[in-house]
Amino acid sequence: MKKVTRFFSLLLAIAMVLAMNLGTLTVSAATDTSTTDYTIKITTSSNDTATHTYAAYQVFAGNLDGSTLSDITWGSGFESDTKSAEFLAALKAATSTNVTVADDQGADTSVTLASLFASCSTAADVAQVLSDNKSSDGSLARAFADLVGTYMTANATTASGSGTVTITVTGSGYYFVKDSADLSGTAGSYTKYILEVVKDVEINAKADIPTVEKKVYEPDYTDSNYTDKYGLHYNDIADYSIGDDVPFELIGTMPSTLSYYSTYSYTFHDTLSSGLTLNESSIVVEIDGNTVDSSCYTVTVKTDTQNLTLDCSFEISFSDILSTYVSGGTLTDNPITVTSASKVVVKYTAELNSSAVARTGYENDVYLEYSNNPYSSETGKTEKDTVVVFTYELDVTKTDENGDPLGEAKFVLYYSDGSNHYAILDSSNKVTGWTTDSTQATTLESDGTTGKFTVIGLNDGTYYLEETEAPDGYNKLTSPVTLVISSEHGTAQQTYIAGDTDSALTALSVTVNGTDGSGSASTGIVSADVENQSGAVLPSTGGMGTKIFYTLGGILVIGAGVLLIVKRRMRNA
User: Fold this and answer.
1) What pLDDT is attached to residue 1?
2) What pLDDT score does 20 carry?
3) Integer Cα distance of 413 and 445 in angstroms
């Protein structure tokens, strides 16, 4: 057999152009390595948690002697001489597959596979062509791997696992390794085909997957350390009033292996809890800060039945995110170049609706479905990322100066941002909205027995209770009562863990004109007492007061008469 003295150089070149860390191969002299066992150790990326099954097939067999693979023949991966002959014929017929190689002066030039392998008749000839031609963009190695993979059907050595997987093969040579597991719907991605010479080698597989995070806007959250990543005020936990539009962001990344794909599907699956209603018209998608034309993606709002099946409230789907363009433009004139470093951001709002109740914590999550196989249309999906929105209940008890409940006191509730916004409530005492017209405000009346009234669905913040009518015999408050509702759920960016609302909301309190009321993080309820003073009852003509004056006058007249008689007797004495 023809000895290929430059084959080791070929292997180094292929390792570089496949853009994989194939490790450093150190070879000691040997005369017959056809029955020696070697290991191929493959490690996936840290965010790929799927179980992979790798199958290794021998493309070329040979002996390792120093840095040279000699005595090259077709490997055992071809089930027969017929199969290897078919592969050689396919190489020589690949007139439509172009690859980049260096010419005699070292400059890149484009040629077809057919032209490169036209004169080959043996395995050693094919190996020599691979050794003689360098490819700066990896196209030769990729094209060769894609084609040889369809002919590797025999004597596979397999191993399965997650993280690091080790395959033990018998016999030195040149091996083709493919990821043969079913990864559909998992948080994993197929490893690009691998070409590797063995002795023992270690490979860091570039089977990367994208990531996705969901964030909610919280005005009180001001940690600027995360502004570049999420935007100022975006966190995992927020508080809102019923009727408010709550801003959300979905933040997706691209895999480091994006260049392996000619098209790439990319779909956000977002689930809103029952307390939130999507404002579909608010949806905006950006890639690297560019607003994407809405024709590049599809928004699908699910029905309740579909929710049960598809586990989401709505989808934003790109059939091919590599073919997007700026809003109002065209793919030809205004394309968006999507790279492995690109960030995809979906912005939208959802209304906190009347289904919301205090303290429940309305969880909302997203997962990403993405292309995970460069050779097919299969997709994987990420783990879910969750945020939570809280709202609170205010219980007010009207009392007299003795602390006893007082009914029939009437109030309106408002907050101010320069203008007063008055609360509008439904028959269940839930906030349905706010108005700047005080005549449209809902009147809150204290119960005749308990002295209590309730407002459900408030954000934390400062509110004012203005008494519009006092109970009979009591003075109306001369100024509004200031209520400050305060919640605590962390000051630093945090990753909310689904179901952990107790850790998300750690404290809830209220002050009434600067005096502490009571609050409970476990119930989401704050309570406040508001006191009325009774009025002074003054006398009036025709009433009990005139009788008092008559009595006093009579006493004075009698006293004057007695005094006069005493004085006359004293004179006569």
Assistant:
1) 42
2) 35
3) 11
Q: Write out 486-545 in H/E/C secondary structure.
A: EEECCCCCCCCCCCCHHHHCCEEEEEECCEECEEECCCCEEEEEEECCECCCCCCCCCHH
Identify the pLDDT of residue 361: 87
Q: Which of 533, 407, 516 is nearest to 471 (CA)?
A: 407
**Owner of token pair 């009562």:** 481
Cβ atoms of 47 and 209 within 8 Å: the answer is yes
Nearest to 188 by CA among 169, 165, 168, 155: 165
Q: Which residues contact 561 (CB under 8 A, 6 or more apart)?
A: none
Structure tokens at 413: 């509730």
Q: Write out pLDDT tens, residues 417-454.
A: 999 999 999 999 999 999 999 999 999 999 999 999 99
The predicted pLDDT at position 77 comes to 96
Give the integer Cα–Cα distance in Å for 198 and 207.
21
By C-alpha distance, which of 357, 13, 390, 115 is closest to 237? 390
DSSP 269-283: EEE--TTEEE-GGG-
In angstroms, the CA 322 to CA 342 distance is 11
What angle (nearest 5°) sits at the alpha carbon of residue 481, between those of residues 474 and 423?
A: 105
CA dihedral 56, 58, 62, 66 (to 10 degrees): -30
CB 192 within 8 A of CB 31: no
Residues of the chain with pLDDT below 50 are: 1-30, 537, 543-547, 549
* DSSP strands (E only) in 254-391: 266-271, 276-278, 284-287, 290-291, 298-301, 314-318, 324-325, 335-336, 343-352, 362-371, 379-381, 385-390
Q: Residue 175 has which token pair?
A: 């091996």
* Cβ neighbours, 10 Å, residue 296: 19
Q: How far is CA 6 from CA 10, 65, 163, 381, 482, in A?
A: 7, 12, 34, 43, 85
The Cβ of residue 328 has, within 10 Å, a number of other Cβ atoms equal to 8
pLDDT value, residue 374: 86
Q: Supply the angle between the helices 123-132 and 81-92 in degrees, to the nearest 10.
A: 40
Nearest to 179 by CA among 333, 381, 374, 387: 374
Distance CA 156, CA 55 (A): 6
Alpha-carbon distance 336 to 326, whole Å? 6
CB 164 within 8 A of CB 52: no
Tell the residue number behind the tokens 């099954």, with chain if given: 53
CA–CA gap between residue 233 and residue 221 (Å, rounded): 5
Report H helices in 120-237.
123-132, 139-149, 227-230
